[in-house]
């Protein structure tokens, strides 16, 4: 039996499975470390068991379907022999010059413009827009409806909340969060949560 494993049985798994199906890619099953989910189905795809099953399959292929940036980072490190699959929904618009890393998911309605660079295990969620020359480092998540103007740089692990935005050329430091509806009009430091219009730091996150 061949196909792509979807890691995580939460709500985002539905989006990833739908994206894989729309792209014509075979889904082998869902893996989740919550043993109570085994035997369930998500969009008719069975939850087969824990993620350790990746170690029992030759040349496993998978996508991490978890919105948490930290979780995607930890899982990708736990299973280094896995071949991480990137997938773009056919109703997304991605310019041929854009670069997309392993394990990255570009969802329906998203737009990725020329010379944008998306690292590994990035999520460009439903209807988000990434303009020209943006850099999204590994484990970034731009939530539904995000708008990034040209040349924005999101360092590793940044979360841009629903309908947030960033003006041209700004940088958001690693593992920072911009709250829903926030507007980034200047550089933001690493490890902070910024909210509001304009987005201002609210508190410092605990770094692991």
TrEMBL record:
One of its GO terms (molecular function) is acyltransferase activity. Keywords: Acyltransferase, Transferase. The keyword Phosphoprotein does not apply. Residues 4-78 form the PglD N-terminal domain. InterPro entries: AcTrfase_PglD-like (IPR020019), PglD_N (IPR041561), Trans_hexapeptide_repeat (IPR050179), Trimer_LpxA-like_sf (IPR011004). Signal peptide: none annotated. The active site is at residue 132. It comes from the Bacteria. Acetyl-CoA binds at residue 141. SUPFAM superfamilies: Trimeric LpxA-like enzymes. Pfam families: PglD_N. Substrate binds at residue 67. The record marks 133 as: Increases basicity of active site His. PANTHER family: ACETYLTRANSFERASE, UDP-N-ACETYLBACILLOSAMINE N-ACETYLTRANSFERASE. This is Sugar O-acyltransferase (Sialic acid O-acetyltransferase NeuD family). It comes from Deinobacterium chartae.
């Amino acid at each position: 039996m061949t196909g792509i494993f979807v890691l995580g049985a939460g709500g985002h798994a539905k989006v990833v499975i739908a994206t894989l199906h729309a792209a014509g890619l075979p889904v082998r099953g869902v893996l989740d470390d919550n043993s109570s989910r085994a035997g369930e189905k998500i969009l008719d795809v069975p939850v087969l068991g824990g993620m350790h099953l990746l170690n029992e399959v030759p040349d496993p292929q998978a996508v991490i379907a978890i919105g948490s940036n930290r979780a995607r980072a930890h899982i990708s490190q736990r299973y280094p022999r896995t071949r991480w699959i990137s997938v773009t929904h056919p109703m997304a618009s991605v310019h041929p010059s854009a670069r997309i890393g392993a394990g990255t998911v570009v969802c329906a309605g998203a737009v990725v413009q020329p010379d944008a660079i998306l690292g590994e295990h990035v999520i460009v969620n439903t209807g988000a827009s990434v303009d020209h020359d943006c850099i999204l480092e590994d484990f970034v998540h731009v939530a539904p409806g995000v708008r990034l103007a040209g040349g924005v740089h999101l360092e590793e692990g940044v979360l841009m909340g629903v309908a947030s935005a960033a003006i041209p050329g700004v940088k958001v430091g690693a593992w920072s969060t911009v709250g829903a509806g926030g507007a980034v009009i200047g550089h933001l430091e690493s490890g902070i949560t910024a909210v509001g219009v304009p987005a201002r730091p609210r508190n410092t996150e605990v770094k692991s």
